[in-house]
Amino acid sequence: GSYSYEFGDHGGLIVMADVTRRTSNVVFSWTEGADWYDFELDGEPFHVNNIITSDSAASTKFLIYGTRDYDNVLYHLDFSSILPRTCSGYWAPDAQSSDYETWIPSAGLISGESCLLGRITSYVRRKPHAKCFNGEKFERPVFKNNCPCTFEDYHCALGFARTLGESECRPVDVDATSRSWKQHPMIAGMVLAGANSRRDGVHFLWGLLRGCLSESPR
Question: Are the C-beta atoms of 67 and 74 separated by less than 8 Å?
Fold first, then answer.
């Protein structure tokens, strides 16, 4: 079915309720969806309109509201007692004694590749089964490092195209190629993809070794 949902405790808590039918059942998870728990609200089932929490999604308190016949319904949900303590060890993620781990998102295009738009971004998050809350004052450590450039960071400029199975951009339209070369003389038919922040690295373009650009040409 369709559910209204909201995140709390900096993403460590998910709270949901069915919006397709009358219900008094609330479902929640504190293990990133690996395990789900539910409970029944007092009173007759009602149509859920929405679930809300603080704008920062840092709280463990929620409001769920809707309608029962012609009456408005509002419940206050407090999850602060479901876990016994506040997490510790964010300064030493991945250590056995720490409640936290390092998480690195990636585009998943290349096996083992952790770069996303030219950058490796490491987030410190609570281990999924650590029985603790982040706490409202938790400030998530984030570490960012740029990656060396590769052909995958570029798309072909106007008048250039890639042959299936190849990485290099080669001219296919003489007039368009001439205009593109005048606009971007250093990239030999390739333009760094927008919002990409990769730096350093080198690549061969038509036999020329060039340093990778740090930003999209203008």
Answer: no
Are 186 and 217 in contact, with CB atoms under 8 Å apart? yes
State both tokens at 185: 């003389």
For the record, the structure tokens of 25 come out as 């059942």
Task: Tell me the C-alpha to C-alpha distance, in Å, between residue 198 and each of 29, 87, 154, 165.
Answer: 37, 34, 11, 23
Phi, psi (5° rounding) for residue 170? -120, 150
The answer to pTM > 0.70 is no
Tens of pLDDT, residue by residue over 32-42, are 999 999 999 99
**What are residue 180's phi and psi, to 5 degrees?**
-65, -40
Domain residues for the domain of 178 are 151-192
Q: How many domains does the chain have?
A: 3
Name, in order, each residue with C-beta under 8 angstroms of 37's C-beta and a sequence gap of 6 or more: 27, 28, 29
Count other C-beta atoms under 10 Å from residue 188's C-beta. Answer: 21
Is the Cβ–Cβ distance between 161 and 170 less than 8 Å? yes
Q: Is 52's pLDDT higher than 80? A: yes
Same domain, 58 and 118: no
Alpha-carbon gap, residue 130 to 78, rounded angstroms: 19
- The pair phi, psi for residue 181, each rounded to 5°, is -65, -35
175 occurs within a structural domain: yes
Name residue 121's amino acid: T
Q: Is residue 212 in a domain?
A: no
Q: Are residues 128 and 159 in the same domain?
A: no
Measure the CA–CA gap between 148 and 105, rounded to whole angstroms: 17
Q: Do 108 and 69 share a structural domain?
A: no
